[in-house]
Predict the 3D structure of the following.
Amino acid sequence: MIMTDIRWFKYSSPQTFYPLAGTLAPWFSAAAALLAIAGLYISFFMAPTDFQQGEAYRIIFIHVPAAWMSMFLYLVMAVWAAIGLAWNTRLSSMMACAIAPTGAIMTFIALWTGALWGKPMWGAWWVWDARLTSELILLFLYLGFMFLHAAIDDPRRADRAAAVIAIVGAINVPIIYFSVKWWNTLHQGASVSLMRSPSMAATMLLGMLVMALAFWMYSIAVILMRVRCVIIERERHADWIKAPGALE
Amino acid sequence: MSAPGLLDSVVAVVARDLRIALRRRADVMTSLIFFVIVVSLFPLGVGADPVLLRTLGPGVVWVAALLACMLALARLFANDYADGTLEQMVLAPQPLALLVLAKTAAHWLTTGLPLVIVAPLLGVQFDLDADALLILLASLLLGTPTLSLIGGIGAALTLGLRGGGALLALLVLPLYIPVLIFGAGAVEASAAALGAGAHLSLLAALLLGSLVFAPWATALALRIAIE
């Protein structure tokens, strides 16, 4: 997430990254707001009513981007945690820390909106579909990462321990996904599937992509803001943070 | 004096842990009794209908085995951590991952293997037939070492933490899910005349995979916990 292609390592120290994150966060927030307005307008006023699902399908404009972000953020978090573990870079671990709550909330939104969508479509709030189940397990993995980090007082030890569980989780995610998928086909066949065969109308796809971008921008903005808080919390004894004007 | 060879040190660690387990028989028995009690609770909870029990049986035995293995994990490193043995192992010239593997093997011999031996008896309580019992036995035999290996990572990470037990469950149980699915699935598939071969192969694959990666990750976690 370090948005520079010149002197990459300049911003790898909390001291230099802190103001950069502060500068970038409002831009990403603004982009998120504009894209969300555009995406919601397309989703609710331009996209046609689905001939099978009626109006209730419109929840996918929230649901699908949230589900994408939930999986993508776990990967990003695991990569940052692994970098922090391998090279002992403090900022990488702080990034992993900052990403986890956003990833967890995305997972939760995906599950919640999935339930809201499932009730009118399938007649049930919850079915043991492979995707639902693995999304639920993903939520547990996020919570495990956050709670393990919270349980260890020394932040550096917490970073490294949480990194191990993040990496183990990342390796396990595909295994869990496929095992749940095969278990699911054994149990109840493919009667319920999120993959609908009719191809989407172009405006629907557009709405979804714009919303996905909005979610992406929102996640970056929130993560940058949170990483600033993490930096202040961890570096509160450092000289640079006590200098006047450092927290502008 | 030269350091003992790799195999000698593995044998020494296994023998030591087995000896300790033999002298603290109650510890070993506790998780076994826990397993038996949890399995026995299910008919009381869901009713004694034989058809229902036959369907539930493999899953219930597997879930109970999962929980029993998880409860026993706290013992894997805790005592050695408390008395400093673990530090000596980290400092030892032998690779830590290998010593971890030896400890995990001893742990499985004292917690996993007794479960496997008792499980058919509990299967009989659930009216499983001879074929199903055999598959259950095979799936547990292949699956429980994986539980010990993966659980070792969680046990090492939560070493000496506040609320270690519940945290260990949160960390480890999601990772146990594939083993549970294929283990219980093996019995179900053979009951449905689909053959348990695929499930058992996948269990064996999980075992081999975790044999390679888990001791290494556990060793890493131990180093983090110790320093």
User: Anything to note?
Assistant: The two ends of chain B are 27 Å apart (CA to CA). Chain B has a mean pLDDT of 89. Residues 6-226 of chain B form one domain.
